[in-house]
Every structure is written in structure tokens, then in C-alpha cells.
Amino acid sequence: MAVVFDEKKALFTLYTKNSMYQMKKDDLGVLLHTYYGRKTENTDYSYLIYCKDRGFAANPYDAEKNRTYSTEILPQEYSCFGTGDYRTSALRIRGAGGCRVLDLRYENCEILEGKYTIPGMPAVYAQEGDSAKTLVVTLKDKAEDIFVHLYYGVMENLDMITRAVRIENRTAQPVYLEKAASMCLDQIYGSYDWMTFYGKHEMERQLSRTPVHHGLQSVGSVRGASSHHYNPFVILADHRTGETQGECYGFSLLYSGNFLAEAELDQANQTRVVMGIHPDNFDFELKAGDDFWTPEAAMVYSCGGFEKMSQIYHYAYRNNLCRGKYKKARRPVLMNNWEGTYFDFTGDKLVEMAKEAAALGVELFVMDDGWFGKRDDDFSGLGDWYVNEKKLGCTLGKLSERIHGLGLKFGIWFEPECVSEDSDLYREHPDWAFQIPGRKPVRGRYQLVLDFSRQDVRDHVFAQMCEVLDHAEIDYLKWDFNRNITDIFSAALPAHRQGEICHRYVLGLYDFLEKLINRYPNILLEGCSGGGGRFDAGMLYYSPQIWCSDDTDAIERLKIQYGTSFAYPISAVGSHVSASPNHQTGRKTPIATRATVAMAGTFGYELDPMKLSEEEKTEIREQIRVYKGYYDLIQDGKYYRITDPYRDEAFTVWEFAAEDGSEALVSAVSVKTYPNAAPVYVKLRGLLEDKFYVMNGERYLGAALMYGGFRLPAFRGEYQSWNFHFVLEK
Ligand code: DGJ
Question: Which of 616, 636, 655, 663 is catalytic?
């Protein structure tokens, strides 16, 4: 039932649990988008389309004398360039003769059981018991043998529709893709807000919400990574939509490289959203007979506000995107030495720290940057992935043994994509780094980026990594990437194919990661790019958790984690307690508050335990005990944003509620303090209305907590925190 093709009406309708998506082939064979929204039965929404003769609209030749027919006004399922639709196009191809015009018409369709996959790229997958179908609608250019296959993954029970496009060149000549978006959505009417997540290093995923205005507005990245600066996740929301009510659409790109997300309001007040690989510096050769897959975009419609939308993404990404042992296995509480020592450590120092960590209840000790090559600062060593035994005072195998001997798991840091000029690798293979002959390369953190579009470069780094991983017991690997790409030029590609590099780089990265997780299925992989510079759904296919931000300040993290939560599950959010005063901001916060905030993620510590007072150690022991008790509720429960940190200045509050309503954990942090302050109340969610809950010996009716609310404690001083655990009365 998830895909219905009404041949007579030439109507395709996709149904998920609560949403419906529809398109129709019109009399000229143009595929029109008719509807995406709340599910209704047996409706042909083409009645919403209104055509009139608009000045300066172009009419296709086969529309004959019908001046009301124009692709400029008609809602397009996948817009193309040059045949009358002047809005932003999803597809632009340069033919052998230099022509960029395309006129896509319906060719055929196929409905397949299960969910399609994309060779070499991340995709949401169906699990046993999921009801998943694939619809493939094939369009063809009217003149040339260019075929465009639109893929729809209809994940009925997940309430999600995924899209990807495969472009096939069946002509006898090469053609060049200049833009190949993963999706295009034309909403016939509606007054929308455009919500994006902007930021910078140490302040990722800040929420921006502005009305969609006439013309084009966009966010994207041309940095070679999805970036700290804009996230490949955007929302189109009705003006009135809020956290718990109203309509919104989420668009998430499963891609870790250059991307563009555009919204355009046209002359007829229709809104178009296009999302995919960024067309800047993208020029991909498609030889005769070749095909090209775009990355996947995952769309969610919610009529229950942002909360519902986020919960759909959380569930789907946790269960149907993340893979491997740690998708389900309990993630260990970790201690990472980075903010504790930076580069200044020895093997003995680490063992000393690990001993203390073990006594606190930590389960995994991570040795961060600085254990390899010549690496006592960030000027040298990247690319030389051999153990600096002099610094460690022993082999890595021995160090790992010593850490394991303390009852801890052991993890290490890598930055496989980068190279220092002061490294053996660079001295041997300078052409493996992105740089342009005759120019000096642009540095970032004093390092260069290796050309991961090249198999030989990847193979070399992979072999080096295996040499390390095969000779020590390693349980965890942090994959970092500390700069963005410049000097995009590959010594391995001819001049006319240099526009392929950025995409090939991402494909190379995915190929590497796939090989790595297959060879080391027991290693827990944590993604990282200077914190959250590549926090995207593409990376989640390989690493079930990603270091959320290099900003470990608990108060800053409130907004960073709030923004992150719109698309990404708590189980993906790397979050640690660090020292106070905080190293990024100098702010002092109680250790209890740092822990409360870090618990809304994959919990851990990032400090030197030798510097902790006895009181702090006692507190940490208790924090870890408490966290372990809440683990399932936090990781598998439903996440609720109770306050909006941009509006509610006094407190930031969030909640985890068990799926079955049996318990809820409400966490609150006081952010701002006032004299003679007014009481602050919050309404909880996800409880059973007619059941009683007990919290600190008090009894509350579920409905009362949800609709009447709950008063937060009065406080003096900023940055205090509370955890309220409501348990269903037996
Ligand atoms: C950036 C990461 O986000 C940090 O946690 C740390 O691993 C450093 N890189 C090491 O260079």
C-alpha cells in the first residue's frame, strides 16, 4: 500500500504512516509534483494546480496553442534547465556540443520491494519487519538519450521518504553534470519559514528561522566537508509551526561534502526546495554508458511540530542508518586525554590518568592526538602513522595491555585525511596532498589535505593504519579532520575532470570508512572534524557517534546540542565533561551541571583526573553510576525539547521519556539569574495521562504534569542543574 500507481490517472502516491507524497504525469509527459503533506485517502491533488497565461512564461512546443501551460509555473517533480522553468533547477547537464538544455519527460516506472541502496554511498536501510518499498520513475530527455531515474524509498513505518537520483548517459558521447540535486520539492502554496543550522568552529548548529522570501535563499558548503558553518539539514515550516504543533518538512542530506540547500519563492507564491551536491566547482564527466548516483536525501513531514519531526529522524537514524556492533551495544563511558594534556603526555602519564579514570568508573580510555610520528605540537607528524614509542615509553601493544590491565577499553585518535609538510609521507609524496603545481599550498592548522579521491593515496594510509591496529588491542577509534579543503587539484585527473575531485574525495572517504569498519567490526568509531565540522547523516552511516563540538563549555553546549537534536539522535552526540574554568570560554560551571549537559549524549570526560579534588572524584563516581542507570532511557527514550534556549532565558530544559511512558528524566540548567525572580513552570511530555508518577516521594498525575506543568526550583546563582526522575507508580 505504501506506493500506489494509478495508471489511468498517471498518478503516483506514496504513503507513510502519517504522510503522503504525490506526483502525476501530465498529458505532455511532464512529471508534476502535486502534494506532500498529511495523509488523506484517494485524493488526486492535481486539482490544486492552477494554470493561467502569465506574461513572459515559456510554452513548450508540444503545448501548441495553450499559453497557460508553462514549466515555469507548473510544480515540477525534478526541475531541469533551459526549457522554460526559470526557477532554480535540480539538474544541469552540459552535452558534448556544449548545450545545457534538458526537456525531461516520463518514460516508465517500477515499484520494487524493499529499499534501494546506493553503491558506495550512505543510505537509510530497511530492517526486518520494516515495510519499505522503492519507486523508480524514469524520465528521459526529449531529444537525447539521457535518462534520469528518480528513486523514492518509502519507509512506511519510519514515516520517512528518501530520495536519490541516478543519471544515465546512453548517448555515444560524454556529457558533463554541472548540477545534480538529490531532490526537488515544489509546494504549490503555503507561507513558510526556512530553518537552517549555521555556526562556526566551536559553535555549530545554531538555529536560524526566517520567512521564505521571493527569490533564492540558500545555505551550503564549498569547504570539501559538510562544515561547522552550515549543516546539511534544513526545515521548511509553516509560519505558525512550533515545537509541538503545526506542519513542517525536514530535509536531511546523507552527504559529508560540499552541499547546497536552496529555497525559492516564485512569482505565483510557490515554494521550491532543492538540495544536493553543491554545483560550485562540480563538473562531473559521464562517459557514454556511465551512470551517476546523487547522494540520498531523507524527507520527513510532520503535522505535530518540530518535536515529532525530530523524533522520526532520531528513530530512523539510530535504527536504520547507523550500523555495526555499537548501533545497539552500550557505549562505554569514556575519558579522553585531549583537554587533560593536549600534546604533552607520555605513556606513563596516560596510564596514571587511566588508573584514576578506572577508579572513577570510566570504561574506555582514549589517547588523542600526539602518539605517532613526530608530533608534540600541530606543526608536524600527520601522515606518519607509526607509533612514537619513545614518547609512549613502550609499544602501542604494551600501552594497550597496561590500560586493559586496569579493566578499561582503549582507544586512539587518527586524522587519516591530512598530512603535515614536516612528515615522511609528505617528503616522499608531496603530490599526494592537494596543491597546485606552481603555487604554494594554502595551510590550515598548518597542515594539508591528502587527495582521498585517489585509490593509491587511500591504500597507503589504510595500510599504515592497519599496521597500527593489528598490533595492539584497540577498541575505539576517533577519526578527526581538522581543516577544510583548498587548492583543489588532483595530479591523478586530467584537466577536464578536475571538477570531479570534491565528490570523488567524499566517495574515497566513504570507501575508506567502509573498508575500515568491515575489517575492524568491534571498534567503536567516533567521527570528528574539529568537533562537529562533519556532523551529518552521511558520517552516521559509518560512525554511530560524532564529537559534537570542540566547545565543551556546558552553557554553550545547551544551544549546540539543542540545534543538533533537530535531526540527529542523542546516541550520536559526543559529549564530555571538561575542566572548569572551561578551556574555550573561561567560564566556571559546577561539575554537576557539566555532567547533566554531557549526559544528553554519549557521555564521557575530557580532563586530567589527577587534577581533580577528592570531592570532585566522589561526585564523578556518582555521576557515572547515575548515568549508567539512565542509559537506556537516554539512548532509547524519546527526546523532548522542553524549552527553547533562544527564547527561554532562565532555564534550559529537556526530557527523555520511555517509549512506554514508564519513566521520564527531566534535566534543567539555570542559565540566567534574576532578583526577585518569577517562578518558572514547564510542561512535560510523553507521559501516560491517566497514570501517576512519583518523583522524590511526591505523586503527580501524568496529565497534570503534561497540561498543568511542574514548577522548577527557585535558585540563586547561574549554572545550577537538576535531574528529575519521574517513575510510573506501581
Ligand atoms: C580536534 C578535535 O575535535 C579534538 O577533540 C582533538 O581531537 C583535536 N582535534 C586533536 O588535534
Answer: 616
